[in-house]
Write a structure and sequence with these properties.
Elements (H helix, E strand, L loop, with lengths): L13 H4 L29 H5 L19 H12 L13 H14 L9 H10 L5 E5 L17 H4 L10 H8 L4 H7 L11 E5 L12 E5 L4 E5 L5 E6 L1 E2 L9 E10 L3 E3 L13 E3 L10 E5 L5 E3 L16 E2 L2 H8 L7 E4 L1
Length: 348
């Protein structure tokens, strides 16, 4: 989704508003090792295997070996994503985020809610959407125009020296564009040079579609680590996995409202306004998808709290934040495109 499509309202105070969401629990990605030290690419996963996958229990991981993407799980995750029951990042591996997305889908479909990808869930998913789950994409010169920063600085002071906190590599950019992990993208495209324009690759057939209606109510479930989005008729529009607060700095309780939306926000660390230690100087980090708050900020009426994106989608729902609600960049952008000031946000 183009950031210009976001229903943004001007937030001149946005830098200060972001100060609460950069605790050590949201430390930016560590510096990446040189290319020779990178782990080997995952085993290849064929297009036919994913497209023709029928339900079967995913094989148990082999001890001492990296988990291998499962075709049926990858297919189900893409279908869940397209139905706005987000599994977070699509990896073909499953896990808690996928389990919660399945449970939300089961509830909407009137099925028993156990979060298990069983034969009936798989049947309902594929009956509701029998389209192909993978598609071809040709890498363009625009895709490779960057800027790509090669590595994301580990500390805010170094990050603040950049013009933008861009993607590290074309591989990272393309994986996020299609809601995938880099590992799954590589598995579907063994041996591909993702920095070569004109090359056609296989990607998840996801589309950053608009929600079906304007958002009237957002429910943040702290125990489940999820966000549910409803329209004015209390109809579920979307489900997202989320990282929500921590024991040291829990998310608020009760009801707040949306104040506004800031696409491509900067991030400010101000030691006069926060209690955790990331230095004794005020630092302003420029915008970019690897900014500590990702590609969009939804400001809430509780000072310094918001709903925002993340530089590391694979960690959504699996780590802690400093009170804010963190979604994948694409989920946060989809939500931001349909929220307006005054929308109710209930924390429970």
């Amino acid at each position: 989704m183009s950031k210009s499509r976001l229903a943004a309202s001007a937030l001149p105070f946005i830098a200060a508003a972001l100060a609460a969401c950069g605790s050590p629990a949201e430390t930016p990605k560590p510096q990446q090792p040189p290319a020779p030290a990178q782990p080997p690419a995952p085993a290849a996963l064929t297009r036919d295997a994913v497209e023709s996958a029928a339900f079967e229990t995913a094989p148990a991981p082999v001890e001492g070996q990296p988990a291998r993407p499962d075709p049926a799980t990858a297919r189900a995750q893409i279908l869940l994503d397209r139905a706005n029951f987000s599994p977070g990042v699509i990896d073909g591996l499953g896990g808690d985020n996928t389990r919660q997305a399945i449970a939300a889908f089961e509830k909407a479909a009137g099925l028993p809610q156990d979060g298990v990808l069983d034969a009936e869930v798989f049947r309902r998913l594929t009956a509701g959407d029998d389209g192909r789950v993978l598609t071809d994409y040709t890498i363009t010169a625009a895709d490779l125009s960057g800027p790509f920063i090669g590595q994301v600085p580990a500390n805010l002071a170094d990050m603040a020296k950049l013009k933008t906190v861009g993607y590290a590599t074309p591989l990272e950019m393309l994986a996020e564009k299609f809601h995938m992990t880099e590992g799954l993208l590589q598995a579907l495209n063994p041996g591909v040079d993702f920095a070569k324009a004109g090359q056609t690759i296989v990607v998840a057939a996801v589309a950053q579609t608009d929600l079906a209606a304007e958002v009237a109510h957002i429910v943040v479930d702290k125990a489940e680590r999820s966000v549910r989005v409803y329209d004015a008729a209390d109809k579920l529009l979307a489900f997202y996995p989320a990282t929500i607060g921590s024991s040291a700095r829990p998310a608020p309780s009760g009801e707040v409202t949306v104040v506004g939306v800031a696409p491509e926000p900067n991030y400010t660390y101000d030691p006069d306004r926060v209690s955790y230690d990331r230095g004794d100087r005020k630092v302003i980090v420029p915008p970019g998808p690897n900014n500590p708050v990702g590609s969009v900020w939804i400001d809430l009426s509780r000072d310094t709290y918001g709903i925002h994106g993340t530089p590391d989608p694979s960690k959504v729902g699996k780590t802690f934040s400093s009170g804010c609600v963190r979604l994948t960049n694409w989920d946060a952008e989809q939500l931001a495109s349909k929220v307006k000031p005054g929308v109710r946000v209930t924390f429970r």
